[in-house]
Amino acid sequence: MTEEELYKRTIRVWGKEPQMMQVIEEMAELTKEILKNINRKKDNIPELIEEAADVEIMLGQLKYCYGIAEQIAAYKANKLKLIEQRLNDWEKSHNVNANTGS
Ligand SMILES: [Mg+2]
Description:
The protein is mainly alpha-helical and 102 residues long. It has two domains: 1-67; 68-102. The chain is 81% helix and 0% strand. The protein has helices spanning 3-14, 16-39, 45-66, 69-93. α2 runs antiparallel to α3 (45-66). The longest helix has 25 residues, at 69-93. Bound molecules: magnesium ion. The site of magnesium ion has 4 residues, from α2 and α3.
């Protein structure tokens, strides 16, 4: 079973609204682990891995649920180019070598 087939099945079996609520829940769990890591200096890499994976899975369901996977991929590609350009501009204005970071 492919990922997309699995996402389709989750929506069919468990329903759109419960799965979209689960997206929110998983994002909150990842948020909590990031906060623990940064604010409390907690060594929680296994939890970060688990919650990031959960969020990726739920975002897969969200994409399927709304039929927006292609639009997200296109937006993401454009956004990544923009981030690269901003990094290039920032490094240039701060005299940072893009390869070494210094
Ligand atoms: Mg989770």
